[in-house]
């Protein structure tokens, strides 16, 4: 599991305890996370273990429309930034690559002949 996923799980668990006015420090989340499992598997196991501490739980992941819209916009911005970086990297590679000019030189005469 990635460090960001672990941090997200920690925050997720804290929300359960805070919403029930319980001290989240009584639950040692770091000892409960299994790095060999994926994020969703860990989340399911934690959900079951939290039930013993605070009783029946409802999922805290439900967010308002504004929060969902904001999160979607952030993800969209990240994808656009990544695409721009990749596009610029490829353009830079094409500009610095000598094979483009060599191919132009090789095929210049056949191109002119066809014209």
Structural class, from secondary structure content? mainly alpha
Helix content: over 70%
- How many strands in all? 0
Mean pLDDT rating: 80
Terminal Cα span: 59 Å
What Rg, in angstroms, do the CA atoms define?
A: 26 Å
Overall outline? elongated
Please indicate the count of domains.
2
- Low-confidence sequence ranges: none
Q: Strand share of the residues?
A: under 5%
Order of helices and strands: HHHHH
Strand and helix map with partners:
Blueprint: H1 3-19, H2 29-32, H3 39-54, H4 65-96, H5 99-114
How would you characterize this protein structure?
The protein has 115 residues and is mainly alpha-helical. It has 2 domains: 52 residues, no CATH class; 50 residues. Helix 1 packs parallel to helix 3. The longest helix has 32 residues. It is elongated and about 85 Å long. The model has no long low-confidence stretch (mean pLDDT 80).
Please supply descriptive tags for the structure shown above:
115 residues; mainly alpha; 2 domains; 5 helices; 0% strand
Summary of the model, kept short:
With 115 residues, the protein is mainly alpha-helical. It has two domains: 3-54, no CATH class; 65-114. It is 74% helix and 0% strand.
